[in-house]
Structures are given as structure tokens and as C-alpha cells.
Specification:
Distance between the termini: 38 Å
Number of strands: 0
Number of helices: 2
Oligomer: single chain
Structural class: mainly alpha
Strand content: under 5%
Shape: elongated
Length: about 60
């Protein structure tokens, strides 16, 4: 499976959603899709699901 990597600033994403989409249903769909993508990236990066604690928790390593 081919993976595509791209980077967008949150301001760019908000602008795309706000100005490119004319109806609320489409805005809600795009917002949901982008939120899910960001949650998946977070989960992959920290290697733990939401509210899950692990020995290698990257989000709290700086506290050690």
C-alpha cells in the first residue's frame, strides 16, 4: 500500500474547511476526517491509545 505524507498548518486546514466548503454538512464531514487523522497520528507517535499509559510514554518522558 502506498503511503502519502504531507504537512499542513492548522490555520491552512481551518481555512480550507471554512472557505472551500459551502454547506455545514460538508464542513462537519471534513472536520471529522481531519480530527480522526490527527488522532491517528498522535496514537501512532506516542504508541498508546487515548488515556492509555505505557512504559515508553513519549508524552511524559521529559518529566523523568
Amino acid at each position: 500500500m502506498t503511503q502519502v505524507h504531507f504537512t499542513l498548518k492548522s490555520e491552512e486546514i481551518q481555512s480550507i474547511i471554512e472557505y472551500s466548503v459551502k454547506d455545514d454538512v460538508s464542513k462537519n464531514i471534513l472536520t471529522t476526517v481531519f480530527n480522526q487523522l490527527m488522532e491517528n497520528q498522535r496514537t501512532e507517535y506516542i504508541q498508546a491509545k487515548e488515556y492509555e499509559r505505557t512504559e515508553t510514554d513519549k508524552s511524559t518522558k521529559w518529566l523523568l
